Amino acid sequence: MDESAKSRAAVDGAWRPAAKALVAELERRGLVAEVMGHGAVRVRNPAGEPDPDDPRGQAFAPGLRQEVVCRRLDGVSWWWVWSGPTRNSPPELEPLCPIANAAVAVERITRVLAVPFAGSPGGCR
């Protein structure tokens, strides 16, 4: 097995249980999260969603959403996924924390998706 295949195997074996644990903890904080394929977790804060009765808000407000992915680089880590500078650019990745440090990941993701003064449960205020 070449190094690239070994790296993928390590990530494949480690990320799914860590992703499920991350989703469970994010949901305890009042966020909505789901495990996606390829080592990704997509998270959103329902308090940041546009009013369903506001067609303009529905059309122009994307809500508060964030994706993180598990990748190998000096260990297996969670990485922020940010939009590239243009519509056609690939996403940019920024280190979040080691995969084993779920508490740090949950705290940082919750902080990024926080809505100040909103009444959302579990710390997403």
Automatic annotation (TrEMBL):
Protein name: Uncharacterized protein
Annotated organism of origin: Actinomadura graeca
Lineage: Bacteria, Bacillati, Actinomycetota, Actinomycetes, Streptosporangiales
